[in-house]
Amino acid sequence: MSDINDNNDPVAYLGPEASYTHQAALSLFPTRPNTLQPLPSIPSLFTALTSTHTTAVVPLENSSNGSVLPTLDALAVLSPQVTIVGDTYLPVQHALLARPLADGSTPAVGDVKRVYSHPQAWGQCTLFLEGKLGHATRVDTDSTSAAARKVAEADPGSGVAALASGLAGAMYGLVPVERKCADRGDNETRFLVLRRRRRTGHAGTTTTTTTTTTAIPAEGGATKKTLLHFRVSPHVPGALADALAVFKRYGLSLTSFYTRPDPEPPTRTETQTEAERGRGGWRYIFFVEFEAPGGVDIGPAVEELRGKTTGLRVCGSWKRSS
């Protein structure tokens, strides 16, 4: 596992500037601000990561609103091509931001008719939105800073506002209508540092790999995190329980568990079987994150898990940041 700062390649992040992902990227790469490059959406980050960029910072989950689904869905498909090399946590405090009125005063909450923000922000500010902005229309944007930029382009007094960071407000010339809108004062988001997987070719050249290996080196000292995903047969009673029992048997601590619809279509045989059972032919993919003490080789546990599941892929293994 290499250090995330071991090269000077461009680092993609969910932009525009002043987004929370930008702030996380700055905290991770404080000596390399000029290498940070904003992209407009999470899917575009993964597209860049598998083609033009070697590193990207993406949001994974929030303490108030749970997992960021576009990130999980991209990892479900692209984990053979990318790997997680680190993570970081960032405090998140949303403000309601608007353009100053023509006389320089600040609009009132009651004047706001339309609010722009990223879908994650809605879930983090439920009490504020329902209590003070139930009358306003909500419009999704690709990031909170994109919402701030959208409001900055509107006419003063047009009744539009954004849920975004104070930094985004300052960058786009907005003023805070309300400074603290999150339901929880300890609201924070976890971000992943992703890197394109690479392998050495026969001629010594470096190319993007298309396979996921189980070779994860054991390192002394810091606790190690690992995120992987797999599938189990819905027709085998206790299949998921048998898979999860592997972690206990090897003394590995589960820290998170996510379920998403399987992005890969079922085979014709599976579809026919499900139809005979009177149910839809879709399946689930299970994401599991766990921790192991420094120096512990998790390879045997992963290999045993592979024997109890299908399509197992290791998304990454890295030193715990906190």
From TrEMBL:
Keyword Oxidoreductase in record: no
PROSITE patterns: PREPHENATE_DEHYDR_1, PREPHENATE_DEHYDR_3
Alphabetically ordered keywords of this record: Amino-acid biosynthesis, Aromatic amino acid biosynthesis, Lyase, Phenylalanine biosynthesis
Annotated Gene Ontology cellular component terms: cytoplasm
Pfam families membership: PDT (PF00800)
GO biological process, one term: L-phenylalanine biosynthetic process
Enzyme Commission code(s) on record: 4.2.1.51
Listed GO MF terms: prephenate dehydratase activity
Signal peptide: none
Start and end residues of each Prephenate dehydratase domain: 10-196
Pathway entry: Amino-acid biosynthesis; L-phenylalanine biosynthesis; phenylpyruvate from prephenate: step 1/1
InterPro entries cross-referenced by the UniProt entry: ACT-like_dom_sf, Chor_mutase/pphenate_deHydtase, Preph_deHydtase, Preph_deHydtase_CS
Record's keyword annotation contains Transport: no
Enzyme class: lyase
Family matches, as Gene3D superfamilies: 3.30.70.260, Periplasmic binding protein-like II
SUPFAM superfamilies for this protein: ACT-like, Periplasmic binding protein-like II
UniProt name for this protein: prephenate dehydratase
Source organism of the structure: Myriangium duriaei CBS 260.36
